[in-house]
Amino acid sequence: MNRKPVGAEVYDEKWIASAWGERANEAFLKQEIDHPRPRVKRALELAAIEAGQTVLDIACGRGEVPALAAEKGAFAVGVDFSAASLDFAAKVKSSRQERFKQGRMELVRADACRLPFANESFDCITMLDIVEHLTPTQLEAMFHEVGRLLKPGGFAVIHTLPNRWVYDVTFPLLHKVWRRMPADPRGPIDREIHINEQDLPNLHRLLKKCGLQHRLWLEQHMAAQARWNRLNDRFGDNRDQVYPLLTGLAGRILEAVSLTPAKLLLCNDIFGLAWKEASPVVGLKPRWGITERLAMRLLT
After folding, report:
1. What are the start-end ranges of the E strands in the chain?
2. Structure pTM?
3. Looking at residue 145, which CATH number applies to its domain?
4. Other residues' Cβ atoms within 10 Å of the Cβ of residue 288
5. CA triple 24-227-245, angle to 5 deg
6. pLDDT of 253-288, one tens digit each?
7. Does any domain span residue 3?
8. What is the domain extent for residue 49?
């Protein structure tokens, strides 16, 4: 796997269209989509953002999270090092400004490893789909920055995709018995920018090394994402092949089986909460995944 840092120029307009879909991007700007993508919706549930809070979204991409946080009344800052991403996020800010009420949305161009904010500035920090884009050294630096920026009692929400075990073990096995399923679901862009795909034990070790208390667990959102793609965007990669297979019965079966210990090889979404204190902050309810905890203990 390539371990060289990915340059900001890679995250251009073409990447934005591929990552979210051209129709979905247009619908978001026009406020035609009432609910965010399942993974983002879940992350926002975990963040439990309230009016008056300070929220930082690292690698904000098209600006979806800071915009939705501002709509909840938060002072939300979106950070990205891609000029194209921030240009699109600025359009989102402009198109949704009237929905912010007392909330505010700001955009900052910066490196996730060196963030230009004072210590203990944020109640909540979200890191959605950035972990897999950073080298191990960069990822460690970002987690140290997160620890520096969290207020006492604050916490971070982490999401990364894929669960490396699903891509490296499950898809090749499924392909042997069901040829319609690709042996490797990664598209050409994924192979270029997913330089540090994670599994539970590896992410656990790194968070522990960086001094962050945390809980990690797996969730199944592939089928829900396929159903959510009701605009039928074409992505030019293996999602075009996988999504139609998961919108019906196969997707429902996948979701049911993912509630069992088989989740380790079926759930593609790694979620986590991280904080600095010795115990979870008041009101924070980390999920306790028995299967995940056992796997991390055995394999760490």
Report:
1. 54-58, 75-80, 104-109, 122-128, 150-160, 213-219, 269-275
2. 0.94
3. 3.40.50.150
4. 9
5. 115
6. 999 999 999 999 999 999 999 999 876 665 566 666
7. no
8. 14-299
